[in-house]
Design brief:
The chain is α/β, with parallel strands linked by helices. It is built from 10 helices and 7 strands. It has one domain: 3-Layer(aba) Sandwich (Rossmann fold), CATH 3.40.50.360. Strands 1, 2, 3, 4, 5, 6 and 7 form a 7-stranded mixed sheet that branches. Helix 1 packs across helix 10. The chain binds flavin mononucleotide (FMN).
Length: 209
């Protein structure tokens, strides 16, 4: 498989930086494989008083103010997608969901179909709902007619060291905070996921008339 001609858009939401770091690693992995990559952060929707009540949330929002917001043209431009979200009550964060719910125009025009798509997440707890979050995210990809690209156990060592989630790279924040080797392994797996996505994107793009 070749990532030549791959154009990847990475769209994510992060309130305190964990998923942001994963998104940057996915970008790096796709770019290293040879893809052109756009990184996009969906807008914050939480009320100001909720954000202000958490200094880490406020600080991260300010620190990432330079990251462009996604547009539907970013989706039309790309031939592969990665979406990242923190696990929120076992589900996709509303901020990302809101963006996904604006895609009915390109979906109806078939502009999202036949392209590879993958997801990544982070939760606080090991059993806090990472898989249900990714499966929920993937429901949208099925409706688009996208080609879901999971991490699987294709590179078993990389996925295993990162916690072993074959649905998509998923960080356990509690563990990453105290285990530097684990935190590094998760970022390595996210870079792998970006490269794997880019290879699918380039290969499928080359096969398209
Ligand atoms: C409203 C809310 C709901 C959450 N729900 C869960 C959950 O269901 N399971 C879990 O393990 N962590 C949960 N968390 C914790 C986040 O998933 C976790 O802190 C994650 O690493 C945050 O990523 P971020 O720094 O990119 O925002 C929740 C956090 C918030 C604010």
């Amino acid at each position: 498989m070749s990532a030549q001609n791959a154009r990847i858009t990475v769209v994510y939401y992060s309130s305190t930086g964990n998923v942001h770091r994963l998104a940057e690693a996915v970008v790096d992995g796709a770019a290293d494989a040879g893809a052109e990559v756009r990184l996009r952060r969906v807008p914050e929707l939480a009320p100001a008083e909720v954000v202000e009540a958490d200094p880490a949330w406020r600080a991260h929002l300010d620190a990432t103010a330079h990251v462009p917001e996604p547009s539907l043209d970013d989706l039309r431009w790309a031939n592969g997608y990665a979406f990242g979200t923190p696990t929120r009550f076992g589900n996709v964060a509303a901020q990302l969901r809101q963006f996904l719910d604006t895609t009915s125009g390109p979906w109806q025009a078939g502009e999202l179909a036949d392209k590879p798509a993958t997801g990544f997440t982070g939760s606080y707890e090991e059993h806090g709902g990472q898989e249900s979050t990714l499966l929920s995210l993937y429901n949208t990809f099925f409706h688009w007619g996208a080609v879901v690209v999971p991490t699987g156990y294709v590179d078993y060592e990389v996925v295993h060291r990162a916690g072993g989630n074959p649905y998509g790279v998923s960080q356990v924040e509690e563990r990453a905070a105290v285990d530097a080797d684990y935190a590094k392994a998760v970022l390595t797996a996210a870079r792998y996921q970006g490269g794997r996505l880019a290879a699918f994107a380039g290969t499928l793009a080359a096969a398209r008339p």
